Amino acid sequence: MSRMLTLIHSGWMAARSMARNGQRTTALAQLTRLLSRPDLPSPMAADARRLAAELLIESEDYAKARRHLQAAVALDPCCARTHYLFGLTHESDPLGDDRQAALRFRKAAELAPDNRVYRAAFGRAAVRAGCAKTGVRALLAAAEAGPDDLDVLRVVVDGLIEAGRVRAARSVLAKARFLRPGSQELCRLWDRLRFETARVNQRTARSVQDARRAKEGELLLLPFVRVVRTGSTNTSTMNGTIRKDLVSLPRPHFPRFRHTKADR
Description:
The chain is mainly alpha-helical and 264 residues long. It has a domain at 112-202: Alpha Horseshoe (Serine Threonine Protein Phosphatase 5, Tetratricopeptide repeat), CATH 1.25.40. Helix content is 67%, strand content 2%. A two-stranded antiparallel sheet has the order 1-2. Helix 3 runs antiparallel to helix 4 (62-75), helix 5 runs antiparallel to helix 6 (98-111) and helix 9 (150-162) runs antiparallel to helix 10 (166-179). It is elongated and about 70 Å long. The chain has helices at 2-20, 24-35, 42-58, 62-75, 80-92, 98-111, 116-128, 132-145, 150-162, 166-179, 184-216; strands at residues 228-229, 241-242. The longest helix has 33 residues, at 184-216.
């Protein structure tokens, strides 16, 4: 019995080492062999399922990762990391469900209330699921708890921008830059925020401008309309200007004969 446990433990350590060294395919193969053993202990099986899910998320195989995480939840339902990874599979998947991602992130935040990343992830997922007020409150709470945490700030700024709260994102980043003045990551986030602010202002100004023109009834001259002035003709009633289109006649088409290697 002890020999079997030693073999299982060595297989688990080998899979972890392969995963750390970036050997994703071999690590997944080792985990598959390990999970096929009927005598695998439940705690180790749950850990193996989570590790396999992380590797599959990196490979963008989200459906298979969810199957591993579903089995891990059945083995250990109180693991916050499992629920967080489950939320990532829905959030990163183009065919995923934002509502399911928000529910999984909220469960992870409830199981690990001190983890600010889980709380920020729940806020962003709630914004994407249509619960903007709840999501913004969670994002601001996460930013207040970790004002200089780059992992938290990255998620908070993304969520606030998607919620349309550009001023709140600017306030959060200004505080973070004061606490960490030399951070290149914060400079990149600040540049992105400036771009989003300019884009929103331009869109607002364009909508106001279009509304004013529609209200006043102004006429817009489309740029692809070309008017040619002619001083010799008086057939037009608009200041002697007419539009002339040049017609190009089609040229005769001669069929092209295909050449083969025998004709050379």
